[in-house]
Specification:
Blueprint (H helix, E strand, L loop, with lengths): L5 E5 L6 H16 L4 E5 L5 H8 L3 E5 L16 H6 L4 E4 L2 H5 L5 H13 L3 E6 L3 H5 L3 H12 L10 E4 L13 H19 L7 E5 L7 H5 L6 E4 L6 H11 L2
Parallel strand pairs: 1-2, 1-8, 2-3, 3-4, 4-5, 5-6, 6-7, 7-8
Bound molecules: 1,3-dihydroxyacetonephosphate.
1,3-dihydroxyacetonephosphate binds next to strand 8.
Length: 248
């Protein structure tokens, strides 16, 4: 089973208009030159700007959305709004949403389910905290994250999962490739239990301090199909190097 790799930039709450123009100018030729799929998750206010500059080889996704139809929800944005801005992916369950904004498993699956229903590809993040890893609970956490996050999501090869150990996000500590493979292989086994053979088609990414220097060894693991990249995706040259080193 060959799964097309994905390299996704999660800019979080970073970059502004003028940085984005330059970034896109530099990254479009890289995306045109790779067999991998390149996705950018900008802050929502820049979705349209990124989508406009993206060209046909870069896909754009929302970092967050609300599940309700348009209405009196001050500060929120709907799935149709992000689609209207050119997004085709929707992130759900990022650890910063779960831990800083207290998003429950119920919220995560509602967001992912609505995104899928309205035609966006959900990219769902799961991962254990340091305390959970040290207590030997990693696989239990992943099992529960997968079951709960997918409750409202239909079995489909176009769902993407990102394994992001919380302790590796923004810390410079990358999960050793054998441990990342163990976790991601386990996630695939859980997907198979839930959804059957489609599990072999689902792309599962690793996220957490991915850099140009460590992506190749991560990509060499059997079940790792790409990266979800935070800090190192903020500069076009390092994101480009990750795409290039990850697809060799
Ligand atoms: P870093 O690459 O900065 O560790 O962030 C990972 C992440 O959270 C991507 O969603």
């Amino acid at each position: 089973m060959t799964r097309r790799p994905i390299f996704a930039a999660n800019w979080k709450m970073n970059l502004e208009s003028s940085d984005i123009d330059k970034f896109m100018e530099d990254i479009v030729p890289v995306a045109n030159n790779t067999s991998a799929e390149v996705v950018i998750f900008p802050p929502s206010v820049y979705l349209a700007q990124v989508a406009k500059a993206a060209g046909s080889k870069i896909r754009v996704g929302s970092q967050n959305h609300y599940w309700e139809k348009p209405g009196a929800f001050t500060g929120e944005i709907s799935v149709n709004m992000v689609k209207d801005c050119g997004a085709t992916y929707a992130l759900a369950g990022h650890s910063e949403r779960r831990h800083i904004f207290n998003e429950s498993a119920e919220i995560v699956t509602r967001k992912a389910g609505v995104a899928q229903k309205e035609g966006l590809l959900p990219m769902i993040c799961v991962g254990e905290t340091l305390e959970e890893r040290e207590a030997g609970e990693t696989l239990d956490v992943l099992r529960s994250d997968i079951i709960c996050s997918l409750r409202d999501v239909e079995a489909n090869a176009d769902v993407v999962i990102a394994y992001e150990p919380v302790w590796a996000i923004g810390t410079g500590l990358t999960c050793p490739p054998d441990k990342a493979q163990e976790a991601i292989g386990y996630i695939r086994s859980q997907l198979r239990e839930l959804w059957g053979d489609v599990a072999d088609e689902i792309r599962i990414l690793y996220g957490g301090s991915v850099k140009p220097g460590n992506i190749a060894e991560l990509m060499a693991c059997q079940d790792i199909d790409g990266g979800l990249i935070g800090g190192a995706s903020l500069k076009a040259d390092s994101f480009a190097a990750i795409i290039e080193n990850g697809t060799k």
